What does this fold into?
Amino acid sequence: MSRRARRRSVVVVLLGVLTAAMLTACSGSALHGDFRAAFAGDEAVEDFELSTADNMPFADGLSAEVRARDTASGDELVALADRLSEFAREHEAEDVRITIEAAELIVPVFADAAISAGAMARGLDLVDDDRVDSVVLSARTEAKGITGVSIRLAEPGAGSPVAAFDLARTTPVLLDDVTGGANLHLTIAAEDQVRIDGNAGAWVDDVEQVWHAVSNEVPVTGLRAEPGRLKLTLATEADLGAAQALSAARAVDLVVVFASPLVLLGAEASGDSARALLGALASADVSVVRNVWTDDDRVEFFVDSVAQATSTATALSARPESAAFTLLTVTVGDPDEPSLSVTAAPTRLGDIVASAGDLLADGDVASLVSTPRSATLVMAGDATDAELESRLSALSGLADEGSRRCANRSDGTGVCDSGAP
It folds into this structure.
């Protein structure tokens, strides 16, 4: 055999080995086959989905998401957890991760049979609670027991915080014998109205104390709590002073902040700088603001028309209080699909919004979004590339020099350039 033929033979063999490895990975390992053989006909199992332990190609191990029959009883689910635990125990030397999805309940399975069966039983107890809509029990990788529980409350409303506080106290006790000594992380939520998120502890009592103190005197429509921090959403901004005084009267180790329909807060924001800026504006300028959002570094003002955006931006740029922010934004319309949205340094905002408003006065322009790094306009009708290109120069000055400028059609196609000289 010639040297060239031998090289070709070696290549063919290597390709054959690689192909076989790929087919093995795609069709499932022996471990996957063992699982199918054990549970494909299980009377409590509706179906299951298998992948590798870390869901990566050519990785080892097993990740099994097992969906139980809707008609399976509590005893049958506990027995299923026990059988799956036995499989995990028999393959303990391999990376095996199994979860059971039952009606409104997800539970992980462990090699420890008592922990697995106990976790299923405790999860069923929680789901049976009339205040609870669904439950997800979880465990960190390599954990020997439950490390987290996520509870969705059944009926969001005025009583949701009371249910959340009670569940935050009783759930750690209920799950104590299936945590393996781990500190339990709680997430208890009711849509956007209530959320308690953090490791179980006495901090929840402080949150409840402040919530009662404030909500007993002024309407509170939302609560978001984590260790050391509580955000309450007031029904009206007019109640802010009273709410602050009521919370300050409680000797608790919590940072308490307040949102409202007027002032929306990002994570970790207090809203103090945004309120100072709002307070410095003339009442006529404040009256056109639907609401503001802030993370204390930036603040976005939402208004209903281009004319309002122009007057608001001019007023904001003129106020020294705006210097507390790196960037200001004024947005007209739906935040997800604005007709106008301009983000700029405080001193430049007024001029840029005025220029953007002039462009929107052209009936052929449907929307315009500008930030320091880009400016994009969308034409109301169809346009040729040449017509779009003719619009690019009008975007100069709406973003920093050298930033990206785009003129698009309504279908998202269009032309762009860097805006560089």
Notes: Residues 206-261 form a domain with the GMP Synthetase; Chain A, domain 3 fold (CATH 3.30.300). The CA atoms of residues 161 and 194 lie 6 Å apart.
